[in-house]
Amino acid sequence: MKVAFLGPKATFTDLAVREMFPSAQSIPYMTIPDCLDAVMEGEVDISVVPLENALEGSVNITLDYLIHEMKLPIIGEITAPIKQHLLVHPQYKDSWEQVEVIFSHSHAIAQCHKFLHSQLKGIPCESMTSTAAAAKYLIEHPEVRAAAIANELAAKEYGLAIAKGNIHDFDFNHTRFIVLSKIYKEIPAQSLGSVGEKTTVMVTLPSDRSGALHQVLSAFAWRNLNLSKIESRPMKTGLGNYFFIIDVEMKLDEVLIPGAIAELEALGCSVVILGSYPYFNIEKTCP
Ligand SMILES: O=C(O)C(=O)C[C@]1(C(=O)O)C=C[C@@H](O)C=C1
């Protein structure tokens, strides 16, 4: 089985894949859209991409690609703890406070704002395609006096020193990753026990109808369907046009969820099921 992940080696997505698919052949791709193309085009069987971080919110590029560019079913979700460290080339370990630039993934930079503001105030931060891409850049460019925000595995993989550990601003820093596949309907054998099941739907409201969102929510509420997430994203058709992504804490059944969907359609909403899948938690991701 081939699994695409946001690379290079030692990103947080790589760590999630190692936990979830320990015996798969994992293949790094440079960007999230590249990971999604790889599974669409059949280069890989499965793709794992980040969807949401507890401190920074949704990874919009993942959501937008799933909605606007390609229709790929979600077959699973994995939540992993995220520990960010400040890495430097070993030659700068004792002088890390003099770095001139900090590289990382934009989400990782955002997760460490308080640290950066208090300890490295005024030092520019530059966004890279992933945390591990930033770490790799450092070892390949020892002449640049730079730091990377990345994980412990990236420090080991690229031979960097950890100048400051655990620099994320809040202890509870977790990211949810989704598993996408055209060929598997369920997650192929893996060692983790699932925590629960959920169904994700995308709902577009009829335009200009008062109380539409209230009616959508009541279709779930009176059926006692628990919603664990509701988020709006622009439809990209005009200012003020949004759709909603809703997570229902239940596997797709034959009665309740189809009943709610039929009710929404009767209200003039359009509804697409993005997936009904198990979710998993990993407690520890760094060796
Ligand atoms: O850059 C990485 O290491 C990733 O796996 C991406 C990513 C993200 O997109 O949110 C994943 C987890 C962390 O929240 C930071 C970055």
TrEMBL record:
It comes from the Bacteria. Pathway: Amino-acid biosynthesis; L-phenylalanine biosynthesis; phenylpyruvate from prephenate: step 1/1. Keywords: Amino-acid biosynthesis, Aromatic amino acid biosynthesis, Lyase, Phenylalanine biosynthesis. Residues 201-278 form the ACT domain. GO terms for molecular function: prephenate dehydratase activity. Its EC number is 4.2.1.51. The keyword Amino-acid biosynthesis applies. InterPro entries: ACT-like_dom_sf (IPR045865), ACT_dom (IPR002912), Chor_mutase/pphenate_deHydtase (IPR008242), Preph_deHydtase (IPR001086), Preph_deHydtase_CS (IPR018528). CDD domains: ACT_CM-PDT, PBP2_Sa-PDT_like. Residues 2-182 form the Prephenate dehydratase domain. PROSITE patterns: ACT, PREPHENATE_DEHYDR_2, PREPHENATE_DEHYDR_3. Pfam families: ACT, PDT. It catalyses: prephenate + H(+) = 3-phenylpyruvate + CO2 + H2O. It is an enzyme of class 4 (lyase). PANTHER family: PREPHENATE DEHYDRATASE P PROTEIN, PREPHENATE DEHYDRATASE-RELATED. This is Prephenate dehydratase. It comes from Cytobacillus spartinae. The lineage of its organism: Bacteria, Bacillati, Bacillota, Bacilli, Bacillales. The gene is pheA.
